[in-house]
Design a protein that fits this description.
The chain is α+β, with helices and mostly antiparallel strands. It has a domain at about 65-210: CAP (Pathogenesis-related Protein p14a). Helices cover about 30% and strands about 15% of the residues. It contains 5 helices and 8 strands. The longest helix has 18 residues, at about 75-90. About 35% of the residues are buried. Mean pLDDT is about 70; it is low at about 5-15, about 20-70 and about 210-220.
């Protein structure tokens, strides 16, 4: 009976958002490769995986009744894994190491929660991307739940940058901040839309120069 109620709520388009924190909440135990489940924030197509989309499975066929639920992993561990991954990339490129900002992370969680409620990916207007009177970078990603590994988020962003450069394309602005030379702090937010079974990730970088200035001096290291 309970699963029938949840399925009816899903069909009506109702949403329930779960902010990833230290308290236990519903979480799927699927162990799919995260790189096969990410959705491109612009074209809403998988960056990796087959033509069916997220992990080779038609997302419309998945219902809440099919989920197996287990306790959630703390966002603290996931954000630490992400920070460690991108700092390894930056060290390889002789770029300064980043530190974790609780203030930026709080802001990132608030933004991720807003996007999750709307079930829509959109970038913040440039005029609003200000922190301590300095411009900040923003990465927004929507992907199929669950996100269990922060390092995989970093790998996805890095690989996308490499692919852009190998194909002769300009690096996407939403991914470029991890290589900004002036960046010192990072904030990480992760929120789940439990009905649509999508996780929303927002990452802030402080401070950043204009993307074209950073790109011209940084990307030749690849």
């Amino acid at each position: 009976m309970e699963s029938d109620k949840k399925n009816r709520a899903y069909q009506k388009g109702e949403t329930r958002n779960v902010v990833y924190g230290d308290s236990p909440v519903l979480h799927s135990n699927r162990k799919e490769n995260i790189s096969q489940r990410f959705i491109d924030p612009v074209v809403s197509n998988p960056i990796f995986g087959d033509s069916k989309g997220m992990g080779g499975e038609n997302s419309e066929s998945v219902t809440l009744a099919q989920q197996v639920l287990t306790p959630i992993i703390s966002i603290g561990r996931i954000s630490d894994e992400y920070l460690d991954a991108i700092n390894k990339y930056r060290a390889h490129l002789s770029l300064p190491q980043l530190t974790f900002s609780s203030d930026l992370s709080k802001r990132a969680i608030e933004r991720a929660n807003y996007l999750s409620k709307r079930d829509k990916v959109e970038s913040t207007s440039r005029s609003d991307l200000i922190y301590k009177d300095q411009p900040i970078g923003e990465t927004v990603i929507s992907c199929r739940s669950p996100v269990n590994d922060g390092s995989s988020v970093g790998k996805l962003i890095y690989r996308q940058l490499v692919n852009d450069l190998k194909n002769g394309n300009p690096p996407k602005k939403r991914y470029a901040p991890i290589l900004n030379q002036d960046c010192k702090e990072v904030g990480f937010g992760l929120v789940r839309n439990d009905i649509s079974q999508k996780d929303y990730i927002v990452i802030y970088y402080y401070p950043v120069r204009k993307a074209e200035e950073s790109a011209s001096e940084t990307f030749y290291f690849f």
